[in-house]
Structure formats: structure tokens, C-alpha cells
């Protein structure tokens, strides 16, 4: 019993009967009607009050109305009409039955007002009239049909007696408000007639009824059925909600989940979205599919956010046989509504016991299967199921499901196409970036590359390039734009940088040639339509481990950060230089001497800039994360990304390169000044052999002697003094360098049969791993590398 529903009302006799038939409460109205005091009947079986004690006591499952003959205390009988409700228990205790008996009391009629009688009995709308005690005093046939009871049986009931639903409690509250204020009031409510399976939406007008003196004596309730308009508005609201909530990201799983979330509970109690597995090569499935069909469940949603018991989990591959709604809708190419159980599903349920058990336990009675189709391709199927909603899917429900599903299918297709293009671009990007970094004696390096979380893959790149003389080049660049075109441009620029680095250009000269290349790429991209939009930034550095000096130049790129062995991180002050692609502007270089174990950090602007903050804040976080970078470089890279990047991922590509510099000890370098006299080549060879013996590299003596002899002889004959010979070695490589002040570079050529010369450089090329020439401001250096492992 509700505490706000007392039993001391003398107008209506009420009693509460427990599930076992025992009387538990007895109202004052019941005492007046039958003469029994509460203490005389409470605790007795209710059947004892029947005039015919042998007759059964009606115990309804939901609601029951009818006429009973009850025994009066004085021995007589009373014929009454009874309306009984089954009250659900609030806890785990027994259920209760509430018996309500209206009295034939004419003392509570409203005044004999013709307007009232006309409103009640002649109005085409469903109409009822309540008195000041909120007793129903008049009802027309339309309202009686709506409430599902005869008009005579409704007389004397209160709003909560009619059905006990929350909307009737709200009606009683609004009736009291009209009686108190005397002002009319409009309200919306849902009521379901007993003969119908679904509720109607009603717009009720509550108007006060006054007597001749103007005193409010009752309320007239007139209900207008606007179910169709209400349902149309609900459908339009669902379509609008689907437009705003579905497709917020370019993620297939997220989009499918948004479809399921929007449709529960507005359209169904349970929604699952299953997609076809991509065919080999990524081609979309077109046309109709023949069962059995294998689908991957990617999303589901249920009423109350709990999936039905034993439902297929997200990510599971589900196989639908012939006659299943999902397979039949994909085969037919249109929506299918199937009832459970039905002849259409019997064979399917008998073939798949797991699915049958899932459907049985979830209480599903109707399934609507809608194929997901977009741009002529079939993507999968969306299944809508109803269990707690008693109504089956109507034609309007099918149209609504198809409208929402069609919108979702386009979004899913867009997400798939984006994912496929993104994966293609990522594959291209990774193939163009270095798969591994070269191991050199000059430095230890670690890198990270992260594609943009939302804007797609861009053209960021990094590289570490070994140069002659144990030197190493480091480069980081960023191509303007995103997508495959940006990645392709990045690949071309990275190849160009490697080519230009191979000829040992100074950093500022290399950027000048790279600027010319970007201008040519812009012209190619534009064609006859005008200037192109190809642009890039770049930072190029060369570190010499012998001199421990690093030369850097940048083209519109963020400056690098240096972390001394025992100090805080700080930016290296470099001339900024214009971005690549502007043309006509010079680039400048800067040279720094860096201590051993110093760390250089190169990065692209995607690391420090975002929509949430400016570059200055990002730079400060970067310096803080890099300070004290004495541990492993891989750990430092991870710490930088975790500390600097905003939550949710970077809005632009991020490339990060960290390099810990290692200077070459002076004991691994030997230098001689060579007189310009061919007769002195033999003593030089002897000094070289002695040095190799001191380095314990006697296995390389024969080859090194031949190479040194050829390079020194060529420098004496064709170069210009002063001439210098330098030997450099580490654990794996021996380098021979001969420098002079002439700018004329030797060329490798094939000597003819009777030529007396021209075979020296050919011999050097055959005996060494690599050889080449690099130009300096003072002249040139010819170098050759010998791999010590090959000499053993």
C-alpha cells in the first residue's frame, strides 16, 4: 500500500487482501458498507465475507472487475461492484490485492448543470467529470472505451483507482491544482485501452466547473488523441538525433556503436550491428549475399546498458544460416521483420541452438533486420529486437529504422574508406622512413614517429646518414599538408637529402639545393594553373666526432635542443632561414663544439603545437621533459611524448630524433704532413705500417699500404700543397684521407689496354668498401674506407 492512499475514506469501501487471501487492511468505508469493524475481519480469510462461502474468491493476475454478493454483519447481503488491482510487492514479501467498491451515493453529484451534461454525454471527445473530492461523476462512451470499463462501473472512482499508473497520479495532482486555482490546465499523457496493444498519446484539457455562485465544484477533463502527431514528432526527433550523434568520428566501431546507442530505447530494446569481413584486396561487397553469412559483431546496445544474457560479445564472428532474419535481409537486399517464434525462424532456431538459447533467454519476440548499404556496397546488417516493448514493429518503425540505418551506413562507409586510405598512407610513410638507424661510432640515436590522431598522416620525416671521415648527418623535416601526396613528397625530399649528403655538401649548401627541388615540385604540382602549394621545413646537422664540432642549418624549422652531460636542456640559437619552396633567400650555418655525451633533440612542430595551447607552452614542457636526459634514449623519447603531447593524441604528425654524441679519442687518429716529392712516398708508407702495428691492425696493412700509396701519389702529382694524410679507425672501419688545396676532383675511369696510367683509382675502388671526394673551403679531401672485418 502507498502511504498517500489511505483507507479511512467513507465514500469508498477498500480492503487489502494478501496473496494467500487473508485480509490485511479494512477501511472506514468498508465498515459503513458491511458493518464489520477492522478488528473483526483483519486476519480472517476474505472468502468468509462472500454470501456464498463455497464460491471462489477472484484473485486476478492483473486487474479484475465484476459483481459480488457480500455478507453484512447483521446477517443480510449486499450486492456490490468490485474493481480489484494486483499491487506488485515493494520487496521480497507476498503480493497484495486491493478491492475497491464504489457506493451508489447520489449525494456527491454535481449540480444539474445542462452544460456539464452536454459536455459529458454529447462531446465527441473522450470526456469525464470529477467532483471536489476527485470522484468520477460523469463519463461518456469515448472515455469509457479508452479506459476499458463500462461507464456505470467507473462512477465514484478516483484517478489512481482507474489504473494506478504514474500518469494517473499526475492527473490527480493536476486536478487538485485546477480545483485550487480555478484556472484551466493542459497536460500530455499516455493511456492504453484494454483492447489495444499500444498506448495512445493524449492532450488533456482540464477545465474548472463552477456553480451559479462561481464556486468551483468540479473539473471537466477532455482528452484529444494526437498519437499520430506525437509518433511523427518522435520519429523526426530520432532522425535529427541520429544526424547529430552518428558519425562524430572516422572510426568504424565508434560509428556503429553510435547507431546502436541512438536506437535504444527509442526504437528497440536491443540493437546489434554486424559488418562483413573485408574481402581480400579491400574490395567492397556489392549485390546480394547468399546464406550462410559470416558477420563480425562490432557494436551492440541493450535497454539498461546490459546486453541480453548469453548475447554474442562484440568482436565475435557470427554465422547466420538460411532463414535467419540477418541472412534473409542481406540476400533480399531489404528489411525483414520476423516474429519469434514463427515459421520463418523455426528452421533457423533448430539449426543454431546457441542463437535459439540466446533469443529465448532475452525474451525477444520481434526482430527487424536492416541491411547496411552505402554507395552500392553492402557493409553488413543492423538487427533491432523488442522484448520489454510489447508492440511489434510497424511499417512506420521499419521506415524509421531504414532512414537511421542508411545515414549510419554512409558514415560507416566513410570511416572505412578513411581507415583504408589512412592505412595506405601509413604504409607508404613507414616504407619511406628509415626502417632502422645506422650504428656509428659518432653517436647513439633513438627516434619516434606518430601520425596525427585526426587530420591524417602527414609528411614528417627524420634520418641519420653516415658521412665520410666518421662524420654523421642528422636531418628532420616536415612537408606541408597531409595524405598520400604529402607522404610522397616527403619520400622525394628524403631521397634528395641522402643524395646531396653523399657528396658532402655543407648544411647551408644542401638546403639551397633542396629549396630548388621544392620549387620544381611546386611547378610540377601546379602545371598550368599557377603556383603550387608544395612547401616544407627542414633542419640539417653534421657532427664530426674527431673535432667534436657540429654544424647546423635550418629552413623555417624549430631549433634543436641540446642537453649537456650535466646541465639543463636549452635551445641552440640558429639563424632561422626561410621555409623550403620560397626561393631566392640564402641559408646560414652555425657551428658549435659539443662535449661528449651531449644529447641533441630534433623534432617537428606537431610535438609542441596544438589547438589547446601555443608553441611557447609546448616548448617549455619539452625542455622540462628533456632536462637530465642521462638514461636510455628510448625511455627519454617515451617520456617526452607522454609529457608534451596533449591528451587524445597530436593534431599534427610528430617526428622526434634524439642523438647522444660520442667524440673519437685522439689515440684513434693519426695525421702526417706530406712533402710534394714522389721520392718520399716510401717513408710515408713505412710510417703508416708502423701506426697500424701500434693499433694492432696488421691484418689491414697490405691493403692500407696500397691505398695510401695510390692516394698520396695522386695528390703529389695532380694536387697542390700543402698535402696531409690522416688515418682514422674504430672497431670496424679504417679510413684513409688525403687532403690538398686543389679543387680538381679525380674521376674513376676504365684504362685501355695499352694505357700506362689510369688504374690507380680503379684499384682503390676494388680494395675498399667506399671511396669519394669531399670539397672544403681550402680544397678537397679524397677518402677511402676499409672494413676491418674483411681483412681478417
TrEMBL record:
InterPro entries: Bact_Sigma-Reg (IPR052016), GAF (IPR003018), GAF-like_dom_sf (IPR029016), HATPase_C_sf (IPR036890), HATPase_dom (IPR003594), PAS (IPR000014), PAS-assoc_C (IPR000700), PAS-like_dom_sf (IPR035965). Pfam families: GAF, HATPase_c_2, PAS_4, PAS_9, SpoIIE. Residues 16-44 form the PAS domain. PANTHER family: STAGE II SPORULATION PROTEIN E, STAGE II SPORULATION PROTEIN E-RELATED. NCBIfam families: sensory_box. Residues 185-238 form the PAC domain. Keywords: Hydrolase. This is SpoIIE family protein phosphatase.
Amino acid at each position: 500500500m502507498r502511504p498517500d492512499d489511505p483507507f479511512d475514506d467513507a465514500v469508498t469501501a477498500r480492503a487489502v487482501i494478501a496473496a494467500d487471501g487473508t485480509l490485511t487492511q479494512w477501511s472506514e468505508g468498508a465498515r459503513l458498507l458491511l458493518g464489520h469493524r477492522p478488528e473483526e475481519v483483519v486476519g480472517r480469510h476474505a472468502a468468509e465475507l462472500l454470501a456464498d462461502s463455497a464460491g471462489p474468491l477472484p484473485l486476478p493476475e492483473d486487474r479484475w472487475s465484476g459483481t459480488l454478493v457480500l455478507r453484512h454483519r447483521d446477517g443480510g447481503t449486499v450486492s456490490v461492484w468490485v474493481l480489484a488491482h494486483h499491487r506488485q510487492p515493494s520487496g521480497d514479501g507476498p503480493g497484495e490485492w486491493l478491492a475497491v467498491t464504489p457506493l451508489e451515493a447520489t449525494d456527491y453529484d454535481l449540480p444539474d448543470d445542462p452544460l456539464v451534461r452536454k459536455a459529458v454525454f454529447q462531446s465527441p471527445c473522450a470526456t469525464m467529470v470529477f467532483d471536489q473530492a476527485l470522484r468520477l461523476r460523469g463519463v461518456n462512451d469515448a472515455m469509457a472505451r479508452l479506459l476499458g470499463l463500462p461507464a456505470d462501473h467507473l462512477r465514484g472512482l478516483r484517478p489512481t483507482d482507474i489504473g494506478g499508473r504514474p500518469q494517473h497520479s499526475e492527473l490527480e495532482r493536476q486536478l487538485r491544482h485546477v480545483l485550487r486555482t480555478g484556472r484551466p490546465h493542459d497536460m500530455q499523457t499516455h493511456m492504453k485501452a484494454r483492447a489495444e496493444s499500444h498506448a495512445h498519446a493524449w492532450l488533456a484539457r482540464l477545465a474548472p466547473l463552477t456553480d451559479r455562485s462561481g464556486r468551483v465544484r468540479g473539473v471537466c477533463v477532455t482528452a484529444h488523441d494526437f498519437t499520430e502527431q506525437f509518433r511523427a514528432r518522435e520519429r523526426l526527433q530520432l532522425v535529427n538525433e541520429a544526424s547529430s550523434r552518428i558519425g562524430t568520428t572516422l572510426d568504424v566501431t565508434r560509428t556503429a556503436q553510435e547507431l546502436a546507442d541512438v536506437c535504444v530505447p527509442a526504437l528497440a530494446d536491443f540493437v546489434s550491428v554486424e559488418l562483413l569481413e573485408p574481402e581480400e584486396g579491400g574490395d567492397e561487397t556489392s549485390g546480394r549475399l547468399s546464406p550462410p553469412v559470416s558477420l563480425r559483431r562490432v557494436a551492440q546496445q541493450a535497454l539498461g546498458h546490459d546486453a541480453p544474457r548469453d548475447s554474442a560479445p562484440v568482436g565475435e564472428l557470427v554465422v547466420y544460416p538460411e532463414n535467419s532474419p540477418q541472412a534473409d535481409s542481406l540476400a533480399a537486399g531489404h528489411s525483414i521483420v520476423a516474429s519469434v517464434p514463427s515459421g520463418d525462424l523455426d528452421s533457423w532456431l533448430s539449426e543454431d541452438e546457441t542463437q535459439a538459447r540466446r533469443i529465448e533467454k532475452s525474451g525477444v519476440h520481434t526482430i527487424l533486420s536492416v541491411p547496411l548499404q552505402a554507395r552500392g556496397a553492402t557493409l553488413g546488417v543492423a538487427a533491432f529486437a523488442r522484448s520489454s516493448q510489447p508492440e511489434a514493429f510497424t511499417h512506420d518503425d521499419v521506415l524509421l529504422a531504414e532512414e537511421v540505418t542508411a545515414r549510419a551506413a554512409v558514415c560507416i562507409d566513410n570511416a572505412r574508406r578513411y581507415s583504408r586510405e589512412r592505412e595506405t598512407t601509413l604504409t607508404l610513410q613507414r616504407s619511406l622512413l628509415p626502417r632502422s638507424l645506422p650504428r656509428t661510432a659518432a653517436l647513439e640515436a633513438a627516434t619516434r614517429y606518430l601520425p596525427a590522431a585526426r587530420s591524417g598522416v602527414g609528411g614528417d620525416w627524420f634520418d641519420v646518414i653516415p658521412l665520410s671521415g666518421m662524420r654523421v648527418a642528422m636531418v628532420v623535416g616536415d612537408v606541408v599538408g597531409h595524405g598520400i601526396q604529402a607522404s610522397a613528397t616527403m619520400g622525394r625530399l628524403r631521397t634528395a637529402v641522402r643524395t646531396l649528403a653523399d657528396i658532402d655538401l655543407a648544411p647551408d649548401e644542401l638546403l639551397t639545393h633542396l629549396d630548388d627541388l621544392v620549387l620544381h615540385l611546386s611547378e610540377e604540382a601546379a602545371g598550368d594553373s599557377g603556383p603550387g602549394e608544395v612547401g616544407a621545413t627542414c633542419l640539417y646537422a653534421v657532427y664530426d666526432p674527431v673535432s667534436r664540432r657540429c654544424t647546423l642549418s635550418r629552413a623555417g624549422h624549430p631549433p634543436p635542443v641540446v642537453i649537456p652531460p650535466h646541465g639543463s636542456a636549452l635551445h641552440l640559437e640558429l639563424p632561422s632561414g626561410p621555409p623550403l619552396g620560397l626561393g631566392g633567400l640564402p641559408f646560414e650555418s652555425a657551428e658549435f663544439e659539443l662535449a661528449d655525451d651531449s644529447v641533441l633533440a630534433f623534432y617537428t612542430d606537431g610535438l609542441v603545437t596544438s589547438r589547446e595551447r601555443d608553441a611557447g607552452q609546448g616548448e617549455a614542457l619539452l625542455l622540462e621533459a628533456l632536462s637530465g636526459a642521462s638514461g636510455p634514449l628510448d625511455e627519454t623519447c617515451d617520456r617526452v611524448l607522454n609529457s608534451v603531447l596533449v591528451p587524445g593524441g597530436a593534431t599534427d604528425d610528430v617526428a622526434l630524433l634524439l642523438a647522444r654524441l660520442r667524440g673519437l679519442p685522439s689515440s684513434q687518429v693519426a695525421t702526417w704532413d706530406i712533402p710534394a716529392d714522389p721520392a718520399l712516398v716510401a717513408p710515408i708508407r713505412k710510417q703508416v705500417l708502423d701506426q697500424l702495428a701500434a693499433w694492432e691492425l696488421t691484418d689491414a696493412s697490405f691493403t692500407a699500404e696500397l691505398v695510401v700509396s695510390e692516394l698520396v701519389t695522386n695528390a703529389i702529382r695532380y694536387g697542390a700543397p700543402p698535402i696531409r694524410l690522416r688515418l682514422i679507425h674504430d672497431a670496424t672501419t679504417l679510413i684513409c684521407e688525403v687532403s690538398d688545396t686543389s679543387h680538381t676532383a679525380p674521376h674513376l675511369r676504365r684504362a685501355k689496354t695499352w694505357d700506362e696510367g689510369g688504374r690507380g683509382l680503379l684499384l682503390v675502388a676494388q680494395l675498399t668498401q667506399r671511396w669519394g671526394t669531399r670539397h672544403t673551403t681550402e680544397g678537397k679531401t679524397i677518402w677511402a674506407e676499409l672494413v676491418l672485418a674483411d681483412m681478417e
